[in-house]
């Protein structure tokens, strides 16, 4: 008799099973415990390109402006070359010299010259008068062809004196050219400004010739078209000028007439063409301007990049190399304001996928992370530059946020150690909502990929950091939702991550406090909607969750994923606040209002109901939960029906719930679900039915609703490809028989 009784023992999971290992619990009963997936929060697209967008926490008076005017007069002329630092002894008598408008032009008194022919004096005086007239009007002198120079002895070899960057003194009539070169070369070895300690180099013969024959003609072509009537011609001329300077080794600060050159370029900015201004900016940066001029040229590029219509100007343009070279500066805070506008331009441009690909190939991610490390290291030492550091990091993190959209950037982030460095930024600037939101967006994007998710999980202290920031920025929805999305990704596949997060002091309490805050916000929002007329409610049907609902979706997903770990799942199942809030979600929110929120709440209850601990709050509330689940079964939402069936599969291990299922005709739903063409739905329905057949008086219900035939149909349709479902059907038939 004992053997016969043992053979006929029904199949079902005991309500008090023996203690299982973690691995056994996780792998047991297909989908008894499962993680949840959700969509990544959408990164809003800003309509207007600004240094700090409309959602910035910075007030207008506490942030640099995005709008400003720039003209030729905004630039300093000249941008001086470095000079020798050797000080000369002051003279007892300082000669009175005319003030020079250009401090790169030597103002030392002219050296003695041999007497010249009176006719030559007249000719030179006329030429000089024309030069000064042109200079006073901002013009350049007429170009002199090499053959004319040789005939008139105006640009004879070695005659450049340095007293004027554009005109030289003539040689004495009949003086041997070779002797002149020798004499003038000695005279022009070094010219010093009396009493100033500044030493100015003098052009060599080759430099003078190259300037006069290659550079000056191009400058005069630019001068002659200053009305901007032909922008394309001016742009082409700038390209030729750039090439000529490069060929003559006159870029950076190597050109002796650099001041004259820059003055001519600055003047062209007033034409107001973005296309031309970008060419000018590239050339000005190539001349290694500093100080105010570097700031203004970066502002100029920033201003051009603010218009999305100008993006094509930056495509396949080496101006991006110039911007990246500014970012690579060693002394960050000596050019911090210029760097800010340079970073702002890169932020705008990185929003264009074509330009972004080009920037990534030029090392954008690596360069930005080097800059970030410099800023972090500086802030560790002292907080002198903390404010401007914050402004810079807003632009930098926004650019990195844009760059993670391209798949090829992710490996660059991993190889450059970006994730730990970003955590350092969060530690140092945890009160800066703009920086925190940008980094939260980066983490939410990267954590969607397994390799990046694993790297972030290995960042020591990241969970403690996230919890501290969640507490600090509780009401900042766009930050909170992304941190919970990231935590949901971290805990989706990594059991160590679940355990580490749970062990952080106050972790569950902080999460549940945010659950309460956003639940109350959602209730308040729902109450305000009840005042709408029916017509208005119909017009306001949501296609996407509200901001508050989205936070709740991501937060509940974290709880569901954490509950996969047996220690955490048991703790949550016995936590009255946790279960109470989940029940409230099912009470006040219909699946038609927000499908994902309701399904996530039901799925989390399903996970928690898996743990049959003595003081389980889920078990204590099982009849109330069963009533709420009936609402889901009556909905037209198949996902909601499936989730309700899954929870009933766990709760029906209790005789009280099995009685409820029969009394409320819930079993009829389960039998009907066997007709579904979905294997998961059939599996969940079978799970409830196998528990019902434990009670002898309930086995007859399978025959009443044609359940036996439907079970055999499931076995025929799904059995050959799904052994787990086939096994469950056979166990149900065994119990019935």
Automatic annotation (TrEMBL):
<dbReference type="InterPro" id="IPR038905">
    <property type="entry name" value="ARMC2"/>
</dbReference>
<dbReference type="InterPro" id="IPR000225">
    <property type="entry name" value="Armadillo"/>
</dbReference>
<feature type="repeat" description="ARM">
    <location>
        <begin position="665"/>
        <end position="707"/>
    </location>
</feature>
<dbReference type="InterPro" id="IPR011989">
    <property type="entry name" value="ARM-like"/>
</dbReference>
<feature type="compositionally biased region" description="Polar residues">
    <location>
        <begin position="188"/>
        <end position="199"/>
    </location>
</feature>
<feature type="region of interest" description="Disordered">
    <location>
        <begin position="159"/>
        <end position="180"/>
    </location>
</feature>
<protein>
    <submittedName>
        <fullName>ARMC2 protein</fullName>
    </submittedName>
</protein>
<feature type="region of interest" description="Disordered">
    <location>
        <begin position="185"/>
        <end position="204"/>
    </location>
</feature>
<feature type="region of interest" description="Disordered">
    <location>
        <begin position="93"/>
        <end position="119"/>
    </location>
</feature>
<feature type="region of interest" description="Disordered">
    <location>
        <begin position="1"/>
        <end position="73"/>
    </location>
</feature>
<dbReference type="InterPro" id="IPR016024">
    <property type="entry name" value="ARM-type_fold"/>
</dbReference>
């Amino acid at each position: 008799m004992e053997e016969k009784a043992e053979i006929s023992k029904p199949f079902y999971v005991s309500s008090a099973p023996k203690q299982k290992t973690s691995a056994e619990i996780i792998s047991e009963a297909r989908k008894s415990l499962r993680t949840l997936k959700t969509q990544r929060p959408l990164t809003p697209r800003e309509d207007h390109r600004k240094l700090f967008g409309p959602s910035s926490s910075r007030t207008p008076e506490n942030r640099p402006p995005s709008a400003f005017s720039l003209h030729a007069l905004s630039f300093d002329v000249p941008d001086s070359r470095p000079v020798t630092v050797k000080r000369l002894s002051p003279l007892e008598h300082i000669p009175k010299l005319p003030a020079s408008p250009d401090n790169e032009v030597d103002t030392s008194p002219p050296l003695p010259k041999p007497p010249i022919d009176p006719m030559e004096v007249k000719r030179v005086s006329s030429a000089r008068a024309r030069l000064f007239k042109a200079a006073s009007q901002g013009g350049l002198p007429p170009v002199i062809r090499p053959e004319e120079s040789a005939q008139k002895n105006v640009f004879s070899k070695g005659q450049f004196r340095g007293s004027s960057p554009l005109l030289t003194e003539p040689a004495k009539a009949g003086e041997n050219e070779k002797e002149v070169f020798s004499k003038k070369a000695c005279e022009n070895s070094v010219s010093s400004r009396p009493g100033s300690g500044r030493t100015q180099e003098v052009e060599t013969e080759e430099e003078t010739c190259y300037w006069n024959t290659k550079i000056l003609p191009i400058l005069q072509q630019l001068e002659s078209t200053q009305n901007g009537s032909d922008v394309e011609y001016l742009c082409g001329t700038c390209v030729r000028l750039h090439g000529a300077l490069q060929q003559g080794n006159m870029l950076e600060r190597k050109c002796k007439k650099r001041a004259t050159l820059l003055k001519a370029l600055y003047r062209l900015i007033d034409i107001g063409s973005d296309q031309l201004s970008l060419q000018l900016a590239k050339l000005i940066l190539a001349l290694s301007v500093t100080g105010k001029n570097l700031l203004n040229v970066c502002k100029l590029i920033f201003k051009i990049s603010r218009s999305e219509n100008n993006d094509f100007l930056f495509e396949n343009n080496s101006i991006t190399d110039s911007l990246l070279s500014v970012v690579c500066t060693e002394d960050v805070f000596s050019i911090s304001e210029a760097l800010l506008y340079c970073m702002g331009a890169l932020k705008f441009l990185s929003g264009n996928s074509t330009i972004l690909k080009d920037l990534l190939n030029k090392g954008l991610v690596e360069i930005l992370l080097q800059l970030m490390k410099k800023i972090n290291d500086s802030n560790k030492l002292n907080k002198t530059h903390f404010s401007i550091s914050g402004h810079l990091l807003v632009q930098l993190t926004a650019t990195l946020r844009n760059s993670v959209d391209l798949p090829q950037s992710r490996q660059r982030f991993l190889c450059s150690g970006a994730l730990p460095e970003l955590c350092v930024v969060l530690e140092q600037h945890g009160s800066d909502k703009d920086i925190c939101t940008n980094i939260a967006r980066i983490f939410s994007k990267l954590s969607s990929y397994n390799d990046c998710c694993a790297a972030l999980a290995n960042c020591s202290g990241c969970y403690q950091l996230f919890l501290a920031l969640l507490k600090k920025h509780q009401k900042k929805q766009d930050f909170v939702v992304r941190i919970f999305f990231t935590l949901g990704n971290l805990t989706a596949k990594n059991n160590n991550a679940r355990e580490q997060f749970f062990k952080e002091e106050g972790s569950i309490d902080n999460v549940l406090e945010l659950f309460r805050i956003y639940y109350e916000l959602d209730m308040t929002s729902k109450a305000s909607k009840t005042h709408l007329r029916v017509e208005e409610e119909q017009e306001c049907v949501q296609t996407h969750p509200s901001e508050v609902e989205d936070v709740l979706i991501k937060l509940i997903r974290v709880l569901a994923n954490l509950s996969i770990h047996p220690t955490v799942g048991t703790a949550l199942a016995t936590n009255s606040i946790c279960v109470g809030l989940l029940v409230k979600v099912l009470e006040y929110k219909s699946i038609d209002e927000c499908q994902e929120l309701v399904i996530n709440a039901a799925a989390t209850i399903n996970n928690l109901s898996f743990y049959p601990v003595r003081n389980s709050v889920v078990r204590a509330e099982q009849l109330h939960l069963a009533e709420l689940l009936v609402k889901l079964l009556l909905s037209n939402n198949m996902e909601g029906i499936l989730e309700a069936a899954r929870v009933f599969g766990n709760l029906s291990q209790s005789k009280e719930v099995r009685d409820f299922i029969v009394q409320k005709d819930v079993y009829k739903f389960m039998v009907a679900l066997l007709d579904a063409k979905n294997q998961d739905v059939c599996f969940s329905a079978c799970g409830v039915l196998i528990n019902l057949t434990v009670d002898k008086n309930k086995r007859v219900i399978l025959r009443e609703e044609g359940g036996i035939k439907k079970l055999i149909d499931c076995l025929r349709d799904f059995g050959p490809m799904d052994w787990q479902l086939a096994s469950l059907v056979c166990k149900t038939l065994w119990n019935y028989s």
